[in-house]
């Protein structure tokens, strides 16, 4: 009898075990955990597919029907490093290295998934960036790309790429031109030209400086000449005699001088001999 009870016990537990297994499977299929920096697009099998009229699922734990599906997207800023070969305005090959900062628009994830899909980087961002880069670089010469226009080119590539991606539910934050590589012969020619221009500017600066110095000397000389002319015009014989007398008296009173006066000099001035 005891043996029969032991044999019947597993039979009574079988439904419970089956129910438990089904519940575990149901729960495993019905729960979704979305990590930090992510969001989920809900796809309903029996209710219209991709949900676009509701916000995407945010971070944390969620329960969904097991026959539905959740596609998780990273919504943090991401970087695309791209090296591409483009043509300048005169048809020369230019190697352009860029960094692009982008992220999907979180509130438009449903439309992004429905229209483009998870592989939106390859399907839309890279083609848009390459198209904008070719369009912009094709308007400039290698010399402009190498020197003065790099910031302008970077901004133009950013604006053209953003215009495309704004309609594709993707937010573009920045496009940075990391490097512009020209053919070696063109690069050397540009560097020589820039060096010659710099030397020419330096030479012109020296000429301008020298001209200003000469002008300064002329002005100073003219000033001194005018000063002497005014001084000469203001002097007369009486003033000169008075100045001579003052100088003679000061010299005569000097303890270190011995003065011998003999006769008189020109204009009645004394002649001074001896200074020991």
What attributes does this structure have?
alpha+beta; membrane; Band_7; 276 residues; 7 helices; 4 domains; peptidase activity; Prohibitin; elongated
Walk me through the structure.
By secondary structure, the protein is an alpha+beta fold. It has 4 domains: 16-74, no CATH class; 78-182, 2-Layer Sandwich (Tetrahydropterin Synthase, Chain A); 191-234; 244-273, no CATH class. The chain is 52% helix and 22% strand. It contains 7 helices and 10 strands. The chain has helices at residues 2-30, 109-115, 120-137, 142-146, 150-166, 184-234, 237-252, and strands at 31-34, 38-44, 49-50, 60-63, 69-74, 78-87, 93-104, 170-181, 260-261, 272-273. The chain has a 3-stranded antiparallel sheet with strand order 3-2-5. The protein has a 3-stranded antiparallel sheet with strand order 6-7-8. The chain has a two-stranded antiparallel ribbon with strand order 1-4. Helix 3 (120-137) crosses helix 5. It is elongated and about 150 Å long. The termini are far apart. InterPro entries: Band_7, Band_7/SPFH_dom_sf, Prohibitin. This is Regulator of protease activity HflC, stomatin/prohibitin superfamily. Residues 29-194 form the Band domain.
Quick description:
This is Regulator of protease activity HflC, stomatin/prohibitin superfamily. By secondary structure, the protein is α+β, with helices and mostly antiparallel strands.
